Structure formats: C-alpha cells, structure tokens
Amino acid sequence: MNDSLIQDILKYVSLTESDIATLSKYTEQIDYKKKEYVLKENSFCRHLFFVEKGCLRMYFINDKAVEQIVQFAIDGWWISDLKSFNNNTPSDYYIQTVENSRVTLINTDNLDQLLNELPKLERYFRIIMQKGFAAAQLKAKLMYEMSKENFYNHFCSSFPEFVQRVPQYMIASYLGLTPEYVSELRKKKL
C-alpha cells in the first residue's frame, strides 16, 4: 500500500500496523493512463478515489454541450460522485485523469466493512468530507463576490500547482470563464 493515504490518515487519527493491514485489505490501487475515464455519466459510482499520484477532474456536460468542471484532485486529494456513491443512483458526472495517475479505491461495500473494523476512520472520513464541503462553499461564495479577474488571480495564488499541471482551458471551465478570457488574464500577468 502506498504511504500517501496512510500519511493523510495519520494527520487526523493514529494507526497501528494492524490498522494499516486492515486498511490494505479493503483498498486497491489502480494505475490509469492520461485521459482515461474512472467514471462515466449514467454509470454508478461505486468507489471513493484517493489520488496517490497524478491529477483527476470531475465534470458534466451542460445544456450547451460544453464540459463544466466542478472538481480537480491532485496528489493526496479525494474525488468521487458522492450523490451516486451514497444513494446508489446513476452519476451525473464524468471523472477522468488529466495525467497518468495512481489511485487508491475504496468501494461502497468495503468502506462499510472497513469502518466497522476500524471505527476511528469514521473521524478521518468526516473531517475530509467537512473540508471538501467547506471548500465547495468557499468557491461558490468567491464566484459571486469577486470579479472574474480577481477570482482567477485568487485561484492562481491559492493553487499554483494546478496552474502548472492543468491545461488552461480546464482551469477556465472550473472557474466558469472562457479559455479566451483566461488567456487574456495570463497575458496581463506577464
């Protein structure tokens, strides 16, 4: 098992060697190639995905047939369609790799069994879900209160690694901007 997930968990709860062995029993690692789909719209999301190495994006196709990115996940981040995962309903989203990626997966049944065997992981998952929800709320607030230019600049200064690793048109989609406008803003900064 890769140390990234273990190190992330250790930020919030302690783990024994036995706990790590139990965790390994309920997770699996998969390597994905760049642009490979991890989840497609209308399929059922049966996994939580922890990015050991790489970058993934979650998006939907809007009514204008344009991709609208709602989330990215890089090394040490989680990504999943939680509505589909929790409710056993078809997904409204695609999850796709942006670069070659190694991902640790936990499926629905295994998560329940893991949490029964290691109840202290409930705390870990609660904390990461709270952090993810808070980040989504902040993004929504900033989209409404900041100018487009300030929102873009805030994103670039807060997440410089994304700016280096993610294509410009994807950043534009995530921020609700056009690629042309993002290109203008980048030229302004030079």
Commentary on this structure:
With 190 residues, this protein is of the alpha+beta class. Helix content is 50%, strand content 25%. It has 9 helices and 6 strands, in the order H-H-E-E-E-E-E-H-E-H-H-H-H-H-H. It has helices at 3-10, 17-26, 82-87, 108-117, 121-145, 148-158, 160-165, 168-175, 179-189; strands spanning 28-32, 37-39, 47-61, 67-74, 78-79, 94-107. Strands 1, 2, 3, 4, 5 and 6 form a 6-stranded antiparallel beta sheet that branches. Helix 8 (168-175) packs across helix 9. The model has no long low-confidence stretch (mean pLDDT 94).
SSE blueprint:
Layout: H1 3-10, H2 17-26, E1 28-32, E2 37-39, E3 47-61, E4 67-74, E5 78-79, H3 82-87, E6 94-107, H4 108-117, H5 121-145, H6 148-158, H7 160-165, H8 168-175, H9 179-189
Antiparallel strand pairs: 1-6, 2-6, 3-4, 3-5, 3-6
Helix pairs in contact: 8-9
Derived structural class: alpha+beta
Radius of gyration: 18 Å
Major β-sheet profile: 6 strands, antiparallel
Ranges where pLDDT stays below 50 over 5 or more residues in a row are: none
Number of β-strand runs: 6
Percentage of residues in strands: 15-25%
Distance between the termini: 43 Å
Mean pLDDT: 94
Percent helix, as a range, is 40-55%
Shape: globular
Element-by-element helix/strand order: HHEEEEEHEHHHHHH
The helix count comes to: 9
